[in-house]
Amino acid sequence: MDLPAVRSSTRHRRCPHRRKEVMAVLEAPARPRVKRPPRDRQEWGSPATYFIAFVFIALCLGPVIYIILGGFRDNSQITNSPAGFPDPWNFDNYAEVLASPTFWRQVGNSAIAGLATTLGVVVLGLMASFVLARYRFAGRGAMYSLFAAGLMFPMTVAITPLYILVRDLGLMNSLAGVILPQIAFGLPVTIIILVPFLKAIPDEIEEAASIDGTSRLGFFFRMVVPLSLPGVVTTGILAFVASWNSYLLPLFILSDQASYTLPLGVQAFASQYSVDTAKVLAFTSLSMIPALIFFTLFERRIVGGLTGAVKG
Fold it and tell me: Which CATH superfamily is domain 101-311 in?
């Protein structure tokens, strides 16, 4: 037999096996590719959700915008078109209010009451929360429940006993008679927010600080206060805004106009200039703008502090 013929027959005998191997490789299932989710993809809510949110925002911001714009109008514009825009814009109302020494005196009284209330609430609330969160003693749960029950006890119910107590203490017609009750009614919220923050601090940190020779007071100032700063800022902002907007308690305690805070000043100004609606709107908008700015600037702090309290 010829040698090329042998090679040709051998090649033909091996060829079917190779074809089967090649076909097996070609017919093998391919590995599925994992699709990565797009990074910038955002899930949009339903139109009903956005409609409800828009209505809620309009209900909240509508009165505020109306009051601010009303201060730039005169009485004739408000009478002819109550819901219209200023045409022309009148800046005299705001200028007269800002030039009034009475307005700035009331701003100072509100600032003093707000800062003193904030300081008292933060200091006392942080110390009480530290004890309730880090120490074990008889009656701790009952004490915490007592502070929690304070959230269900509004100042409206306690205004008569508070009036009698402040009168007996000789604090009538003074800012101290307003500040002390506001601190007392601000402590429940402060303690409810701060206790979870302080409980979340690991015990190992306290043990390591004790081994290094740090006293309990040093641990409180060096470790507890910095770690609980988001909750402290949140409670401080809430206390300041609540004091700035407080109306019922100053109404019962303060009778001298020299001691009036801004909410009482708005009422007195509206009674004095009852026929000048535009000027009353200007005074009202200027009295609420500081609290709005303060709350807007620290809104993220408030949300972060409340989120941390819930997680804790």
Answer: MetI-like (1.10.3720.10)
88: left (phi > 0), else alpha (psi -120 to 50), else beta?
A: beta
pTM over 0.85: no
Distances (CA, A) of 1 to 7, 9, 90, 146: 11, 11, 118, 111
Q: From CA 123, how far away is CA 126, in angstroms rounded?
A: 5
How confident is residue 21, by pLDDT bands cut at 50, 70 and 90? low
* Most confident option among 45-49, 107-111, 136-140: 107-111
For the chain, the domains span: 48-90, 101-311
Give pLDDT, residue 210.
85
Secondary structure string (H, E, C) spanning 171-198? CCCCCHHHHHHHHHHHHHHHHHHHHHHH
236 and 121 Cβ atoms separated by less than 8 Å = yes
DSSP per position, 191-243: HHHHHHHHHTS-HHHHHHHHHTT--HHHHIIIIIHHHTHHHHHHHHHHHHHHH
Q: What are phi and psi of 85, to 5 degrees?
A: -95, 160
Per DSSP, the chain holds a count of helices (H) and strands (E) of 16, 0
Residue type, 24: A
For all residues of the chain together, what is the average pLDDT?
82
